[in-house]
């Protein structure tokens, strides 16, 4: 059973459609990256899922229950630009958040200490937030999103404004959190998505272009190209390669032969058999893999 089901979710502001009839499911225990260029509708989507704004059309279901406007008991949320009371300590801030979520003072203090340890801020719990680094503030923000034990943690661009050290701290924390929680985070930094997420949702101009596991999307989008190079170029090599039934095109790229195929596995077996039987001195055999960046650029350009 999915944790959350989204059906035909739409948001319009006057004549502008910001999110356009998107549908997807979030599975329990997965880390999902919501990808898209600036202005794609990512933040609007996350704010609807968190219950901060109402959709124009569509439905959001949490398990079997209708998702209503006030869903604070289901969702932990970290906005792209979190605001803190800089005069508070980290401990005071989390206790304040916990009591807003209807925890008793003792419960809030116990939970605050637990989460400060999780986000590796225990040694700084008495430090004023105004003296925190950017990475420390984001980790504190993630801790506040977890104070009420939500089923779904939503993070809006959690690393976009951080330096490399802060970015690495937050990515490592996300990697740890996904062991115990369902995480949905938006980003336009594709390497981060590929590093920590299980599934992706690719949004552009309010439309959901692709969704699924990173492995499945790679398999769907791979260019099915094999690069070959030889120590001494065999005669009539291009004509011979085209004799293989799964090969449909052969071109040159510097010293490489670029072989476009219908079926990579079949082509690999037939090519290696031909190369061995002919005694060609092979120096390169490389199967091209589309990067997530390649897939992203292709999808938003179509």
Strand order of the largest sheet: 6-7-8-3-9-10
Q: Summarize the biggest pleated sheet.
A: 6 strands, mixed
Question: Strand pairing plus helix content: what structural class?
Answer: alpha/beta
Rg over CA atoms, rounded to whole Å, is 25 Å
Anisotropy-based shape: elongated
Helix and strand succession?
A: EEEHEEEHHHEHEHEEHEHEEHEH
Number of helices: 10
The total beta strand count reads 14
**Helix-residue proportion:** 25-40%
Q: If you average the pLDDT, what whole number results?
A: 88
Measured between the Cα atoms of the first and last residue, the distance is 33 Å
Task: Give the uncertain stretches in residue-range form.
Answer: none
What is the percentage of strand-forming residues? 25-35%
Structure description:
- The structure is a single chain.
- This protein is of the alpha/beta class and 302 residues long.
- The protein is 34% helix and 29% strand.
- The chain is built from 10 helices and 14 strands.
- Strands 6-7-8-3-9-10 form a 6-stranded mixed beta sheet, with helices on both faces. It has a 4-stranded antiparallel beta sheet with strand order 2-1-4-5, with helices on one face. Strands 12-13-11-14 form a 4-stranded antiparallel beta sheet, covered by helices on one side.
- Helix 2 packs across helix 3 and helix 4 runs parallel beside helix 5 (164-177).
